[in-house]
Amino acid sequence: MQLAAFTAKGPWYKGNLHTHTTNSDGRFAPQATVDLYAQGGYDFLAISDHNHVTDVADLDPRGMALIPSVELHGGVAEMGQDYHLVCIGAHGPTLPIPPGTAQEAVDYVRAAGRLVFAAHPYWSSLTTRDLIDIDGFNGVEIYNNTCECGIGRGHSEPHVDALLARGRKILLTAVDDAHFGYWDGLGAWVMVRAAQLDVPSLLDAIEAGQFYATTGPEIKVVEVRDDTVHVECSPVRTVALVTPWPGCGWSTGRLREQGAEDPRIVEIDLPLHDGERGFRVEVVDHHGRRAWTNMAVAD
Ligand SMILES: [Zn+2]
Ligand SMILES: [Zn+2]
To answer: Which among 138, 226, 230, 273 counts the fewest CB atoms within 10 Å?
Structure first.
């Protein structure tokens, strides 16, 4: 039971998997958006305009890998709203999703490109059942920065855990969903361990789960050793083993004494209890910034 991100070889690459430009409702033109992320030290960027695949071949990548992508809207969820589905690695110009069921919408997006992520479930007021009832998507945005900055609804951990509890193999991303109407950029990203910096290698690595999601903290090592999970990270105040089953899991929060200062944790061994068939790691730093690994499951 190990995590692919921490057993894979190769360098780490930083990237944002959800971005808008003036090709839909973003504030900046595609090139200006690329420039901004390149200046921010990113290695790759997925431009995912609403119902429009921006042609990245027209852009100067400024040293980054640009992944053609698109955000499509379709299906009908419990509250009557549609699903937002981000297609990473779009095959070509993509038409809007025709009217139909949620499953038909996912199937449509799946045919349009390489990977499908369910975007911002909390912002969309998707119920956990809305996600449980559909299949064929690769992952879920566990955190969406524009939804957090805009209305305080960026976190979708309960949606993710509802799927993981049912044994669903889903990947967990943190994304900007940047529109730049307010400052929502360069705040949430994935760190991907890929063979090299090009679009096919990145897509292979993401599909294989060789990444973690973050709004700041760095996770350097996650390793299962017998009945403990060894974690090394940049300084944080809390490390948790999150498991999706009733009452399971463990957090360093329980080590804190009344009135004590926040600890400064850079390395720790957490207990993995009998019967816990898997876990994901979450860390929180002293500014409240968070990082999330994918789920490790027993072989
Ligand atoms: Zn959306
Ligand atoms: Zn979006």
So the answer is: 226
